Structures are given as C-alpha cells and as structure tokens.
Amino acid sequence: MSVPHIAQSPSALLLARFGGLVPLGERERQIIRKLGERAPQAWQNNTVLLAHEGEGSMTRFIVSGWAARVRALRDGRRQIIDVHVPGDWIGHAGHPLLRTTTRTVALSPLRTIQTLDVQREWSDRSREPVLSTALGLIAAEDQQFAQNQVVRLGRQTAYERIAHWLAELHYRLSARGEAAAGSFVFPLTQEAIADVVGLSVVHVNRTLQEMRRQGRIELRSGRLNILALRELIAAGEFIEPTLKSGLVPDDVAVRLSQALALAQ
Amino acid sequence: MSVPHIAQSPSALLLARFGGLVPLGERERQIIRKLGERAPQAWQNNTVLLAHEGEGSMTRFIVSGWAARVRALRDGRRQIIDVHVPGDWIGHAGHPLLRTTTRTVALSPLRTIQTLDVQREWSDRSREPVLSTALGLIAAEDQQFAQNQVVRLGRQTAYERIAHWLAELHYRLSARGEAAAGSFVFPLTQEAIADVVGLSVVHVNRTLQEMRRQGRIELRSGRLNILALRELIAAGEFIEPTLKSGLVPDDVAVRLSQALALAQ
DNA sequence: CGTTAGGTTGAGCAATATCAAATTCGGTGG
DNA sequence: CCACCGAATTTGATATTGCTCAACCTAACG
C-alpha cells in the first residue's frame, strides 16, 4: 500500500517553480497559469522520451514522475548524467546538426505537459523582466547541479556522494512544493541510484543502510524521508544555491528584496 | 630546452575555431578578424581568472595557455570541472544573483583577449545566419564534453578515463589548428590531470606510464604526442562529435541556411 | 500461490588510495 | 659551465574502498 501522493496540478507546480525564484506579479501569474493548461501526456516507466535532443528544447514539462538523461557504454555500464524531477523541463540544449550521445528515459511512470518554448519566448529581459530573470536563475542553478555531479563522482566517497545527492534532491523538490517536512516521492530503484552516483548496486544498498542505521533517512515504497537534513548536507558538503541581492533591474530588485524580507 | 610552439595569432585562432564548424564567407571572415584585434592580456600560472562567474560571460578568449574551472572541498580535495584550452571562451553562464561555487584558474601561463560578447551579439539567426550556427554548435559540443566528464568519472576505469580525456583534448585542439600530427602543447602537471580525472597523482602517473609502455603516447616537457589515437579512442570509447548532414565546407552561406531550414 | 523484480547479505578480490622515500628536471645564481 | 634548489615525477609497500559473484529474502502482482 503506497503512500498516496497528491500531485500538484501543472499550473500549481509551474507557479511554485517560478514563484520560488522570483516574486510574481498578477500578470506573471496569469501567464504561467495559462501555460499549465495544456493536456497532460502519460509515459510508462522506461520509455525513451528523447533519443535525439534539441528537437523540442525546453518545451516538455514534468508534472509527476522522474526521468533521466543517460549515456550507455558498450559493455552495459550506464551513467545517469542528470535526473529530471517534477518541475523540470526535458529536452534542453543540443543542436539539430549534432548527433546526440545520450537518451532521456523515464525512471518511473511519468506525466508531462507540452509548454511553449519558454526559453525562447521569455528570455527577453525587456519584454519579461521577471520571468526572464527566473529563467536565468533556472539555467544557472542547473549548471551548478551539473557541476555538483562532477564533483560528487570525481572526488567524493560513496557516503558523501549519496548524502550530497539526496540533499540536492531535497533542495530542488522542496523549492517547488514537492517535498513536505523532508519527505518526498522517490521512485528510483537502487540500480538507478547506482547509475547516478557511479557506484555498484550492492554498495549503494550498504551505504543507504548505514544512513538508515544512523537514523538519517527512511527509504521505502517509493518515498524518501530525510530525518537529518543538516547531517546529510554536512556530510556531503552540499552548498545550497543562494541568492546574492544587488545587481538586478530596479523593478525586479525591489520586489525581490520584498519577497526575501517576507521569506526570512 | 622546450619544443618551440608557434602560437597562432588571435585572429587566426578565431578563424580556425569558427571555420572548423561552419563555412565562412568573406563577410564573416572580416568580422572575425576584427574581433581578434584587441590587445592581449597575460596571466601567470595559478592566477584566479574568475571568482564570480557570470560577470563577463563569453567575453574572454584564450589565445594560449590552459585554464580550468575548479571546485574545492574543505579538506583540500579539488575537482576540475572542465579545462579551457586555446580557442575557448572563459566565463560562461552563471547568474549575477547566484553565488558561484567554482573558480576559474590558470593552469599555465595564459594569454587572453577581450572580445565582445559573441553569445549576445551573434546569436540572432536572422542577423548572423552563419555565426549563430557556429555558436550553437559550440554550445552543443561543450555540453557533450560536460557529459563526457560525468561519464568518465562515474563509470570508467583509470585507464579509460585518461584515454577518453586525451582523445577529447586532441579532438578539440586539432579542430582549431592547435595540434599537428597528434602532437600538441600540454602544460598540465600530473596533479592537475589527477584533479581532472578524479584519481590520485600516483595512479595517474602509473596509468600514463602504461600508456607510454604501450607506445600510445609520449608526454614530456609540456608537450603531448599521441602515437596511437585510434587505440586511445577505442579504449576510452570516445565518441567524436559528428555533424549529421553532409555539411561540406562550401563558401556560400546560403547553402548553409538551406541546410538548416531542412534540418528544422 | 507462483513468479518476478527489487532488495539484502556474505565472502573474496581488484582497483585505486595513501604514505614515504627516491629521483629527475627546469631553472637560477655564482 | 656548474652547483644547487624546489617542483614534479617516479617507485615501492601497504591500506582501503568499493566491486563482483552468488545466494537468499521479500513484497507486489497476476
């Protein structure tokens, strides 16, 4: 009997996503709500979502379920390059002329909606001062997460890697209203975890058990419960992305600082 | 007595960089040549080039020498996230509001020039059909190299990692006229290599020796000689970025835009 | 209930790290 | 040209982390 998860509606998720980054006015809220009104699409676990990237860049938005960008080696080794969770877009970057070396695959049953190409439509600062800022922040955060992945794999121990990654997931999900009290849907098998953190399944299993023994996590039936976030963050040396205030267009800056003041 | 390296002039390097990706017309050549005429700037080994990223995005161009984006852990472990070589720009991405977690550091004496923000100025397809394509390809390639780094660190053995990385370096450098007959300037210490491929210095040393013993590389006094590129590529399972359509160099820009229209 | 995917456990082993001590190399001052 | 210095490379010995293999367990599901 799995814990029921009341998924946010597409619009609510979109609002949480943007609202978590920039203070939204009523105008932006309208635009975003509308964006979420497209019909959702369902995917089975393991479906290939994107074989060639770049075809639909930044246009498919995850409403529920997880996916991953994967590269496979000839002998069967697989590396998950990054994980996509609800509130992410699938299908970044790439170029139509360049053959892709990765696939994007569903790691669980998945629901997506087709949005317009927000990156293209909203990145103009003069037309969308607020939303373009949000998109810039999203891109910058994503880049940091990509760097995190490299550091984990390159220089951290098994325990550190997993701790760091779980902390990162918690950060990402709670910023968009997908986690409550350190608890969130976690649909991956240990094999998939292994492919994320570059370890063997067996070792992942043992490391998770150690975390459980220490009372830092609970993980069962598709749900992760982080009991000791502080400790995980410290163990993995996770750096939470933090906003500097300052250098923004005035209108945005004012609202932003108001929002930050409220958030304190 | 070091092997003399006749560095390309900034303009020549820029031309090689763009010309290696798209067929340039005389108009584009003019524009690019002009871009290379700014005064070069010199940096000592180990200088911090960027503490806060995003300040000068895509505006500093490496003429000679190598640099790297680095993340440090508290206990002194360091991971090099990516390496910048001549023909690369420094200072991508990031966002002024987001505190950076990496530094960009010179890994050798370095010469750069300040260019205009090509990403901003040339990314409009209607104004710069050829150059914008080149920029798109650069971004897409860079993304693939970033993915390569993750796969190396996550799923490859020491030997594979180094082989793969050397093959990638060779690809990047020769595409811009910085390598001849598999030989190129290679100014890194083994410690820096270790920080790239996520290994200990000692193990890097032993792995390099194995490659030498097999007659696949020569590495001494700041120069790398790849004697068996095929074998390195195969061992590391390196995938050379390949253009899909047969975009044969052809001086007419029109052909290119036709090809692009088809590719859409 | 039987099947199956996923999770857990144990034992032995391989890859890579660590530590410490040479050795070589590229300058640099005399 | 030589002697010397510090940095980088190399070598040997030992420790450790994480992998592999193989078996076993459990829960969900038809």
Written overview of the protein:
2 copies of one chain form a homodimer. In chain A, a hairpin with a 5-residue loop joins strand 4 (67-72) and strand 5. Mean pLDDT of chain A is 89; it is low at 246-250 and 257-264. The first copy, chain A, has helices spanning 10-19, 26-35, 118-122, 129-155, 158-174, 190-197, 201-213, 229-236, 250-263; strands at 40-43, 48-50, 60-64, 67-72, 78-84, 89-90, 103-106, 110-114, 183-185, 217-220, 223-226. The first copy, chain A, starts with 9 loop residues before the first helix and ends with a helix. Chain A is globular and about 50 Å long. In chain A, 47% of the residues are buried. In chain A, the strands form 3 sheets. Chain A has a 4-stranded antiparallel sheet, with no helix packed on it. Chain A has a 4-stranded antiparallel sheet with strand order 2-7-4-5. The first copy, chain A, has a 3-stranded antiparallel sheet with strand order 9-11-10. In chain A, helix 5 packs across helix 8 (229-236) and helix 6 (190-197) packs across helix 7. Chain A has 264 residues and is α+β, with helices and mostly antiparallel strands. The interface between A and B is large, with 49 and 50 residues. Chain B binds a DNA duplex (30 and 30 nucleotides) through residues 2, 157-158, 189-191, 199-203, 205-206, 209, 221.
